[in-house]
């Protein structure tokens, strides 16, 4: 009789542990993703690199805007960050136009 009770007890403990693990799984998953973050898009980094090398162009600004917009549309950045960065790019377009470096640069939409 003792072995049967020990076996049943081990089985109950195993089941209890399995149930507890299943209950904790969503919390563990949430905690895992809580520490996730997204960095600046590669196109934005390339734009600022080009800027430092005095290679600013409307094409580079547009690539950066596309990368930023992709991050925003896929919820990798919040709305505040999106608008702040768009203002920076809008200023860059205005600087290009003011310098006469790129007369064909279209305006970025206002936020």
Automatic annotation (TrEMBL):
GO BP annotations, alphabetical order: DNA replication initiation; double-strand break repair via break-induced replication; mitotic DNA replication preinitiation complex assembly
InterPro entries given in the database record: CDC45
TM regions (residue ranges): 32-51
Main location: nucleus
Subcellular location: Nucleus
Keyword Methyltransferase attributed: no
The keyword Transmembrane helix belongs to this UniProt entry's keyword annotation: yes
GO cellular component, one term: DNA replication preinitiation complex
Highest taxon above the source species: Eukaryota
Sample GO molecular function, one term: chromatin binding
Pfam families for the chain: CDC45
Keyword annotations of the record: Cell cycle, DNA replication, Membrane, Nucleus, Transmembrane, Transmembrane helix
UniProt family annotation: Belongs to the CDC45 family.
Name under which the protein is recorded: Uncharacterized protein
